[in-house]
Amino acid sequence: MSSSNAHHSELGAFLKARRMELSPAEVGLPDAAGRRRVKGLRREEVALLASISPDYYTRLEQGRRQASGPVLDALARVLRLDDGERAYMFDLSGKDAARPRRRTAQKVQPQLQRLLADLPTTPAVVLGRRTDILAWNPMAAALFTDFARIPERERNFVRLVFRDPAIRGLYPDWEWVAQISLAQLRMEAARDPRDPRLAELVGELSLQDPDFRRWWGAHHVAGPGSGTKTLNHPVVGQLTLDWSFLTSTDDPDQRLVTLTAEPGTPSHDRLRILASWTAQAAGQPSADH
């Protein structure tokens, strides 16, 4: 066996050993007790979490395929490799194990935070990279959900559209909303394909939701813009709202999203009712007075 083949074979054995050490719960997957014949993660699960095809990953474990640097980065993240294990995996692959670029956590711009507070009758949120929800005002919480109850790492709009029953139930045309949101996320992926948090999000949703997996594979893209959404709100009823994006000049990765209704329409009146209800719930004077 040649040195190259030996390295490929050792890499495959290394990957298999690492995935066998991980439980589904450690990577955020449901663990159906008694249904697994072997311990650890399945090949298909590792592949989906790493955003590669199961066939590609199978050939890596079998020593029949070379892996690119981005794929190795993704596998290091999925398999929870430490720095030494990651360097060893790159050595076996004949690749330079440059440390992955780590972005600092985004914080909402202070001016956007102040603007949110000054919109008492308009639902508004600030979205960051990957559609992470960085900030919101009371009206957005009243319209969608109490974002504060959601762990910060899971506070992502696309994840909530697919996985949160409360938000999913708001949209009578949920499939259209979900596909538009996913297409905007894919546009983000094109801007930064090596973002480990984005790869983690895509892998998680691909495993958990067959609709996401199918639509992500369609490769549709959409940029931020404006449009109209219909929501069935449990308190005020049906709302037809226009949404638009405003991008921060200080941080182009932060966008203020507002939802408004045309004056004189039933939706506008219901939005005012929701604002009054929100103010009363918070013990504040109503914006109508």
Straight-line distance between termini: 83 Å
Mean pLDDT value: 86
Computed over alpha carbons, the radius of gyration is 22 Å
What is the total number of structural domains? 2
Helix-strand pattern, N to C? HHHHHHEEHHHHHHEEEH
Largest sheet: 5 strands, antiparallel
What does the model show?
The chain is an alpha+beta fold. It folds into two domains: 3-93, 434 Repressor (Amino-terminal Domain) (Orthogonal Bundle), CATH 1.10.260; 110-281, Beta-Lactamase, CATH 3.30.450. It has 13 helices and five strands. It has helices at residues 3-20, 43-49, 54-61, 69-78, 83-93, 110-117, 138-143, 157-163, 165-168, 174-191, 196-208, 210-216, 266-281; strands spanning 124-127, 133-136, 226-233, 237-247, 255-260. It has a five-stranded antiparallel β-sheet. A hairpin with a 5-residue loop joins strand 1 and strand 2. Helix 2 (43-49) packs across helix 3 (54-61). The longest helix is centred in the first third of the chain and has 18 residues, at 3-20. The protein starts with a helix and ends in an 8-residue tail after the last helix. The mean pLDDT is 86.
Topology:
Elements: H1 3-20, H2 43-49, H3 54-61, H4 69-78, H5 83-93, H6 110-117, E1 124-127, E2 133-136, H7 138-143, H8 157-163, H9 165-168, H10 174-191, H11 196-208, H12 210-216, E3 226-233, E4 237-247, E5 255-260, H13 266-281
